[in-house]
Amino acid sequence: MSRLRRALLLVFLGGLTLAGLIYVRLAGADLFRRPAATVAGATPLPPGRIRLAVLGDSDSQSYHDTLRAAEPNARGGAYRATTWQWTEVLARLRGDQIDQGQWGAWGTNRYRAYIDDAFGRLGRAPAKEDYRYNFAISGAWCNQLMGPPMRQATRLVALMDTEPQAWRGGVVLIRIGINDVGAHDVLDDMSRDPNGPLTTSKINGCIGEIGKAVELIRKHHPDTNVLLIGVLSNADWSGEFDSWQSAQAIANIDAGLNRFDAGLRKLAATDRHVAFLGDRAWFARLWGTRDDHGRPAYKTVHLSPGWAISNTSGDDPHNAATSDGHAGVVWNTLWAQHLVLSLNAAFGLQIKPVTDAEVVRFLQPSFDASERSASQARAPVTEN
């Protein structure tokens, strides 16, 4: 064998060996991983202030991330500067009481993160701009709570382990599942049979992964609370209004999604530090539902001073959803208001409720931008 071939063989074998070591370490992370160093002098947070971490998908990833959501038409398009995710709303309205971590660029590519995981460092992927304790990533599936490439729950817990005292009384919010059970093909199958094999597989898979994440968090941080958020129905999204226009189809979809929520309720029922918060009931109270024939029959939300927000899609704040199918600024602001009350009720916290007046003040810049845009569109074009 020539020297070149021997050298190439050694490099190849070395690569295999390194890959094997990384795989073994990742496969047995709890056995091999060295705990990340505890922050020196870490103490509990001041009274009245709590830590909040988030696991999930695009329903929770911050909109003003310029690393992963840099497309000009994403998350509000022309109105992006005043279109906020609920986490961003909380940071602005209750940042003095709710600590989501420093805003910044966090994470690396998946391969660097795997190596960091394997050798006891704080791995995190993908890279994004967000609050430090927000691990939600657009497009995430339930199996990425524990598994690659994101490993959201395991990586969050490794970070929490560096400051265990600060997480006493804190909250981990898990809001995930819409990419698993909300896809058109899954809802279509569900509309025919809410107990069909595809629906059952997706729901059971999600609940199983969420259960593992809850168990991991509770094992490492027994004084930290976990809030499980129920799944929304994409049948309520304007992009699907032409689908499933029958009472039976919508009833079947509701029954299937109820099975998902029932699984979360079951997880919460056995642990006083775990709670469930339904999402579809909250949406229905504001914007309503389809009618008895499965046709869209949604209400309009009216906010002072005369703002009307319909269950339509568009980047102007008068739409409930953005053009790219995510919650708009009004939806997210009202949900943040609802979340504060729910956290207080579930875990006995004392976060100051967000008042209706605060909601209006916060939304004023969004509607001002809308009015300026409308005024410019109405202005007559003058000829030179």
From TrEMBL:
Enzyme type, top EC level: hydrolase
Top-level taxon of origin: Bacteria
Any one GO molecular-function label of the UniProt entry: hydrolase activity, acting on ester bonds
Annotated InterPro entries: SGNH_hydro (IPR013830), SGNH_hydro_sf (IPR036514)
Keyword Hydrolase: yes
Domain SGNH hydrolase-type esterase stretches: 95-305
Gene3D superfamilies the record matches: SGNH hydrolase
Short name of one Pfam family: Lipase_GDSL_2
Keyword list, A-Z: Hydrolase
Organism encoding this protein: Paraburkholderia azotifigens
Name listed for the protein in its UniProt record: SGNH/GDSL hydrolase family protein
EC assignment: 3.1.-.-
